[in-house]
Specification:
The chain has 532 residues and is an alpha/beta fold. Helix content is 51%, strand content 12%. Helix 11 crosses helix 12.
């Protein structure tokens, strides 16, 4: 009976790989297991729907229960019987699934290996367990955040980022708690699912098959899956593709690209294949609450996640910080720039379809009449001020702008409203304040507002920029004054020379890609930033 119980509550097994991971076969449960699992899966989906909508529908449900008399003694008795019936169904489904798995040799071998690995998590057992794809919540932790190995600057920046001013006094609390509760309610019932839709159970249920297929593809190409435990206790699902010994196909293999997905992206079907096909070693991870990662997404959990991912890359995978490139897409730009802020020696940042600040994007999606309330909620719970945080990173940066981006524009079809423009302008204004004056800013915005390549080319030609001369001016300045930011280059130049030098820098930092927001970047287009 004990064995049947362990089988009943054991993790779902999806796929079994061969010893070299090059081939695999789906795990096939017998009829009993399929029947029991099907009932439990249906109940889980129903619960996910109820939970996702509970905060919005709770008042209506409560009113309905009162109107129908279901909160009376007789109604509560009927409700308790209904709940009891449900528990009986769950218990029966578990028994059927447990007995079905008990009769399946593949599952019993897997379960024995899992229990052995939990007791003795050595490399041999982990390697054998890696040949199974199963519910990741049951996967043993491979690496835990080590506070003693974190740079002291990381501690100081993290402490400043999480500190918030609190109102003091009982009267202040009485006056503010209704509004505080309303903002909390809106942030968790509406805000988080809109900002991070990939964390919702419904979307993940719909993506279940593509995610399993994506993992299969990566593991069959020698992908190494690992679970990392962050400082806040969240468990982060990662996948590592090593190209350090891949010969001509891994010409950039000594460089590790860490990918940061968008708000509905997963490493299984996301960015990883772009740098991998370009010859780089790649480490992908899922946001907290996405796929195999636990917790819920938000600024603090995102920061903790990328911190442990980088520590794992250095301490376990053996890459130096200077050989790490962060490749981020959309909202993934937030953990990317946090990594640049806390690890200024990181090799480079590649920010693809990334915005400057989430507040303007939230405001344009919500009614104008509640603009102030929207701003307060976003700043209090989801303040992703990417541009401000990027100022702290002194290394190479590449901005990839989607010419037909429909997600991070505040006006549909208008490239001048792309918040990636604002991110680039703020970045250049910080690094080169003498170049981005009123004249330079006007020329820059005119160039960024060009709707197509032909218009861009016409504007560029009208400026008559001598790129060779600009490059020589820049290098001479760096040679004489060093490369510290903000850089005062341009203070002794004419207006025309400043504009020319600014446009030369735009050419180095900005890469336009003629695509919509969600189209994957081809491997042929992936490149590292300009190394100033």
């Amino acid at each position: 009976m004990a064995e049947i119980y362990r089988c009943a509550v054991g993790p779902q097994l999806y796929r079994i790989f061969t010893k070299n991971s090059r081939q695999s076969r789906p795990y096939e449960g017998n009829t009993l297991e399929q029947c029991g699992s099907g009932v439990l899966r249906a109940l889980s989906l129903a619960w996910s729907v109820c939970y996702s909508t509970s905060l919005l529908t709770a008042p209506a449900i409560g009113f309905y229960l009162v109107r129908k008399g279901l909160l009376s003694h007789a109604g509560l008795v009927s409700l308790s019987r209904f709940i009891g019936t449900g528990l009986i169904v769950v218990f029966g489904a578990l028994c059927i699934r447990g007995y079905g798995r008990f009769k399946n040799q593949d599952y019993r071998v897997f379960l024995a290996l899992l229990e052995e690995t939990r007791m003795n998590n050595n490399e041999e057992n982990k390697e054998r367990l890696g040949l199974y794809d199963f519910s990741f919540e049951a996967w043993p932790v491979d690496y835990k955040w080590n506070e003693s190995k974190a740079d002291q600057d990381v501690h100081r920046v993290a402490k400043n980022a999480t500190s918030q001013s609190r109102s003091s006094g009982f009267l202040s609390f009485l006056g503010s708690w209704p509004c505080d509760f309303l903002r909390y309610f809106v942030a968790h019932s509406i805000g988080r699912p809109l900002i991070y839709p990939g964390s919702t159970g419904l979307l993940q249920s719909g993506y279940a098959e593509p995610l399993m297929t994506g993992r299969q593809f990566l593991i069959e190409r020698s992908g190494k899956r690992a679970k990392l435990k962050a400082a806040d206790g969240n468990e982060i699902d990662t996948m590592f593709m090593d190209k350090r010994s891949s010969g001509e196909h891994g010409v950039h293999g000594d460089t590790l690209v860490i990918t940061c997905e968008g708000n509905a992206g997963f490493y299984e079907v996301g960015l990883m294949m772009t740098p991998y096909k370009a010859g780089y070693s790649v480490l992908g991870w899922n946001h907290p609450g996405f796929s195999g990662s636990s917790g819920v997404p938000g600024p603090e959990s995102e920061r903790n996640a990328i911190d442990v991912v980088i520590q794992y890359a250095v301490e376990v995978l053996g890459f130096s910080v200077s050989n790490i490139v962060i490749y981020a897409w959309s909202i993934g730009g937030y953990p990317a720039v946090w990594a640049g802020r806390t690890h200024p020696k990181i090799g480079a940042l590649v920010l693809d379809a990334t915005f400057d600040d989430i507040v303007p994007l939230a405001q344009c999606k919500m009614p104008e009449s509640i603009s102030g309330f929207t701003t307060r909620v976003v700043k209090e719970y989801f303040h992703l001020d990417i541009a401000r945080m990027l100022y702290s990173y002194p290394g190479p940066v590449l901005f990839i702008r989607r010419m037909r981006d429909e997600i991070i524009t505040t006006e549909e079809g208008d490239i001048s409203s792309n918040r990636g423009n604002d991110l680039l302008v703020k970045f250049l204004k910080f690094r080169y304040p003498k170049l981005v004056d009123d004249s330079g800013e006007d020329a820059l915005y005119e160039y960024l507002a060009a709707p197509d390549q032909a218009t861009k080319k016409a504007i560029w030609n009208s400026l008559s920029v001598d790129t060779n001369l600009c490059e020589s001016m820049y290098k001479n300045y760096v040679k004489e004054n060093g490369k510290e930011f903000p850089m005062m280059i341009g203070q002794d130049l004419s207006v025309e020379q400043r504009i020319h030098l600014l446009m030369f820098l735009v050419l180095q930092y900005l890469m336009d890609f003629d695509a919509t927001h969600c189209m994957n970047l081809p491997a042929s287009e992936f490149r590292q930033p300009w190394n100033e």
